[in-house]
């Protein structure tokens, strides 16, 4: 009996031709993880993603804090997408406590959620650009997301990690004149990201580099359990905002963007199309939102669940389905909290996609999976 | 945080400086100056303008321009000056430094940034000096299993190869370090050194990422050398010479890009690949193989390679100018020097100041043609460098298989098309004897 060694430590007998590359954790093209890649010349014969370098024990930490003090740390895994990261938890706690959320608060949540989705996707797109050696595509999204960060700062007071969603609504009402400022910024933002097509998405070198690389077929995408933009890029029309509408999404006109190719070009284009759709949703929500009213239900101090109870809620985050399972035993803290994140589900597809690819395709295929290392480790 | 030490006193500082200066002057005048004189006594000094260059007249030379100017003229015609200063290393390094600054600022403007901003107060002009000082002061770390002599030698060899390339470039009529008849062949020979130096550095580092980067660099440089050489054959056919000065001089009425645009395009693309610039920067592809063959280089070794890279960039741009854009030829825009000032002197009221050695210096060394040629050459080179830098803001990196496909099929095919165009031009009598040029 030999002890089971972690991947990468075990001495494997391999062919003389095969070279093992440790891409990461200290590598400009890996993020907070390691990809163990075995290459034969320029071709990848095996790939073993090794996440876990930024594991923080969020789920265990949640068992020692009450329902309100869990808010700031549960958004830490994705600080760029913090409203969406917190959304399923807040929805679940509301169901546990039996709270009705005011309609204005629901619209504010939708606006915050869509703004955060754009902020996250812009950051993701910036890294995708620099992974392909396109430095302009690194700087432009990183600069343009400031527009939306400023909006979120006006709403919540923080540039990232807003902690704005609370059980029973949102923390604060929108600032005065927010609707006009938001409409102006979002319109300009939409105009800017449409310009990205000229420099990035229609760039012949980019298309020839990413087309037909890392192709994930429709069947494989479903079988491997991928979600979000990866699933939609493989031709599956699945968006939780439509399939399981939460808050006021059923009153809004939401369209999904589906591409059939399933290659890294499609996977990189779907989030960009989603951003354009987010701008539409924000405009609709601003129009339909009640102009005044309460945004928060007053909670009792230290709210408790009613006896042994469990709830599972999920939302469409920037990386796909983000689920939160809360088990309550009637105390002020949750008995168990489980997060099911899109990043980890998408990462599972990586070894299948990279096998047989060229080494030069590794960064584009890897990052097109819409993967956020910190969220996957939780 | 203040930079100045808290117990700093200006009076003490000045006192210390005066103290040091007095001691320095004392020791220099008592020991240093006699030693210099003794050494110079045993060295045979050159004879300039019938007069011996003697150290005993050092202060006279400083005060009397009629004695200084012939010495300056004699120095400017030496090989030492050519190699170190004007057409050679100093001039190229100056243009390379300008290139780095322009690249940073231009790319920053393209990407909605400001670029270097604080160092040197005005738009960060001293950023490069700051970077150089940082690189010099950093520790040089050598991998434990590296082949140390070769690893040490590779950056130096890289700069040496780039400097050898620079030496072959004619800047103005007669101003070239090495004016060889086989100039273009010598250029090809020097370009052939770069892949060897790269693979030496990559292999000797004994590390995986440099190894992959070095192999990629080897693929890229070797496969693009063929279209590079073929694209220049058209120019050789229409001029009938390999001497770069003669090729530049032959374009006095038309630059060759007018007749051979295909060759110019092929040469430009191969140039980007040889220089490892985006979109062909695969050997340094950051997200795949860290920094490619530069991964294990640290401190000033990395700085030397960067210096060599930008010298190479200048040399390639200059080669493009010499071969396709007419080198130093261009409209005469530098005004002639008013010669009567040199021959008859300047009248300042009752005094007439006449400087003796000025006339031969201005008619033989710093002539109007030389100044104008240098100006034209620099303007064209800067323009070409601008177009070499521009793709960095627009294109992503391409892949090895696409690169090799481009080099081996498309570019070689286009280079042959260019050769046929050149042949047609020569045999139809458009160029050559009786033709346009």
Describe it for me?
The complex is a heterodimer of chains A (378) and B (437). Chain A has 378 residues and is α+β, with helices and mostly antiparallel strands. Chain A has one domain (59-345): Orthogonal Bundle (Cytochrome-c3 Hydrogenase, chain B), CATH 1.10.645. Chain A is 45% helix and 13% strand. Chain A is globular. Chain B has one domain (85-427). Chain B has a two-stranded antiparallel ribbon with strand order 1-2. Chain B has a two-stranded antiparallel ribbon with strand order 3-4. In chain B, a hairpin with a 2-residue loop joins β3 and β4 (351-353). In chain B, α7 runs antiparallel to α9 (193-204), α10 (208-239) runs parallel beside α18 (400-427) and α12 (261-274) runs antiparallel to α18. The mean pLDDT of chain B is 85.
What's the architecture of chain A in CATH terms? Orthogonal Bundle
Beta-strand segment tally of chain A: 8
- State the fourth-level CATH superfamily of chain A: Cytochrome-c3 Hydrogenase, chain B
The average pLDDT value of chain B, as a whole number, equals 85
Question: What is the element layout, followed by pairings?
Answer:
The complex is a heterodimer of chains A (378) and B (437).
Chain A: E1 18-23, E2 34-40, E3 43-50, H1 58-62, H2 70-74, H3 82-97, H4 103-131, H5 135-156, E4 165-166, E5 169-170, H6 178-201, H7 204-210, H8 218-223, H9 229-233, H10 240-243, H11 264-288, E6 308-317, E7 320-329, E8 336-340, H12 342-347, H13 350-354, H14 362-368, H15 373-377
Antiparallel strand pairs in A: 1-2, 2-3, 4-5, 6-7, 7-8
Chain B: H1 10-42, E1 47-48, E2 51-52, H2 58-63, H3 65-76, H4 79-84, H5 89-110, H6 127-137, H7 148-167, H8 183-191, H9 193-204, H10 208-239, H11 244-249, H12 261-274, H13 286-289, H14 300-324, H15 339-344, E3 346-348, E4 351-353, H16 358-365, H17 368-389, H18 400-427
Antiparallel strand pairs in B: 1-2, 3-4
